Amino acid sequence: MSYLTDQPIDAAALERSVLLRAHGASVVFAGVVRDHHEGKAVESIDYEAYRPMAEKEIGIVVESVRASFPDVAVAVQHRLGHLVVGDVSIVIVCSSVHRAEAFEACRQVIDRIKQTVPIWKKERGPDGEEWVGWQSAQC
Amino acid sequence: MSYLTDQPIDAAALERSVLLRAHGASVVFAGVVRDHHEGKAVESIDYEAYRPMAEKEIGIVVESVRASFPDVAVAVQHRLGHLVVGDVSIVIVCSSVHRAEAFEACRQVIDRIKQTVPIWKKERGPDGEEWVGWQSAQC
Amino acid sequence: MKVRLLFFAVLRDLTGKAEALLDLPEGTRAVDVWNQLRGEYQSLAGYRHPPLAAVNEQYALPEQRLHDGDDLAFIPPVAGG
Amino acid sequence: MKVRLLFFAVLRDLTGKAEALLDLPEGTRAVDVWNQLRGEYQSLAGYRHPPLAAVNEQYALPEQRLHDGDDLAFIPPVAGG
Question: N vs C: which end of chain C shows fewer Cβ within 10 Å?
Answer without folding.
Answer: N
